[in-house]
Fold:
Amino acid sequence: MKGILFVAHGSRRKESNLEFETMVTHLQEILHDSYAKVEAAYLEFATPGVDESIHAMIHKGITSIQIYPFFLNSGKHVHHDIPEIIKEAKKNYPQIDFILLSHFGNSDHIISVITRDLKVH
Structure:
């Protein structure tokens, strides 16, 4: 079974985390035919953490986990922290297929989203 884990930075501000969780809940509804599990996780300041979410997904029978970094820019978290977490997860769960997707800000569609929003406002 296939799952996708959306990873955000996390915030001390609960409202910021709720925005992310609301988006992922909406994505669960849209992606339910493609993914058995669609989950949210955080690197800092909020729970669940990435390790905790990976473990929970595996416990629920997920055998392939795609990790989608929900970051606009390719900083330390995208280039170092998330790949290190995946490296450790592969050691702990060698039977699981982990796939690191490109971060959100690297999408070819970002420009069209921005220009569409500017035309509306």
The radius of gyration is 15 Å. The mean pLDDT is 96.
